[in-house]
Amino acid sequence: MADYIVGLTGGIGSGKSTVANLFAELGVVIVDADIIAREVVAKGSNGLQQIVNHFGDTILTADGALDRAKLREHIFQHPNERTWLNALLHPLIRQRMVAQCQQARSPYALMVVPLLFENHLERLVNHTLVIDIAEETQIRRTIERDQVSKAQVRSIMSSQIGREQRLKGADDVVSNEGDVDALRSQILALHKKYLNQSVTAKKRHE
């Protein structure tokens, strides 16, 4: 079990996956909230069954998987349903994230959570790491990556906490304005730091 958990977060387009991959290359176990969010509503899951019980099977694709586009559309038309859905999914996601961290075989685990502060999940981690980029960079990278409009990116950004607020909650900050080499050197320095902190945490638990 990992004795130390680092919570990684950042706004859309900040490069969370890139940073997580660099930590993974160093042998760190990655617990990704986005992947878990898909797993808890996978075909045959209890989560999906409860969604079907609530919304009906029109929310499914022909092969019995969750039709995310239909669910998004339904939530958009009935905003109060988001509360029900979050009440179902958030505990399932949280439970699985904690379980994966407990099973981690690396000295520390990296929990990647896009809405770490928004959903008050910072209490699950020992340390917070924020990836920081300018808003203009966020918008440009997201448009290039997802082929979406500037208005759509701004809409997503408005549903997340602001840059200033995110930085206030950070124990460490990684700047992702430069190239991958600049990023890698920051990650290496942080990796050494977290290894040391995990040793201290382990001694405390013994």
Automatic annotation (TrEMBL):
<keyword id="KW-0067">ATP-binding</keyword>
<dbReference type="InterPro" id="IPR001977">
    <property type="entry name" value="Depp_CoAkinase"/>
</dbReference>
<dbReference type="GO" id="GO:0005737">
    <property type="term" value="C:cytoplasm"/>
</dbReference>
<dbReference type="GO" id="GO:0015937">
    <property type="term" value="P:coenzyme A biosynthetic process"/>
</dbReference>
<comment type="pathway">
    <text>Cofactor biosynthesis; coenzyme A biosynthesis; CoA from (R)-pantothenate: step 5/5.</text>
</comment>
<feature type="binding site">
    <location>
        <begin position="13"/>
        <end position="18"/>
    </location>
    <ligand>
        <name>ATP</name>
    </ligand>
</feature>
<keyword id="KW-0418">Kinase</keyword>
<dbReference type="GO" id="GO:0005524">
    <property type="term" value="F:ATP binding"/>
</dbReference>
<keyword id="KW-0173">Coenzyme A biosynthesis</keyword>
<keyword id="KW-0808">Transferase</keyword>
<dbReference type="Pfam" id="PF01121">
    <property type="entry name" value="CoaE"/>
</dbReference>
<dbReference type="GO" id="GO:0004140">
    <property type="term" value="F:dephospho-CoA kinase activity"/>
</dbReference>
<protein>
    <recommendedName>
        <fullName>Dephospho-CoA kinase</fullName>
        <ecNumber>2.7.1.24</ecNumber>
    </recommendedName>
</protein>
<comment type="function">
    <text>Catalyzes the phosphorylation of the 3'-hydroxyl group of dephosphocoenzyme A to form coenzyme A.</text>
</comment>
<dbReference type="InterPro" id="IPR027417">
    <property type="entry name" value="P-loop_NTPase"/>
</dbReference>
<keyword id="KW-0963">Cytoplasm</keyword>
<keyword id="KW-0547">Nucleotide-binding</keyword>
<comment type="similarity">
    <text>Belongs to the CoaE family.</text>
</comment>
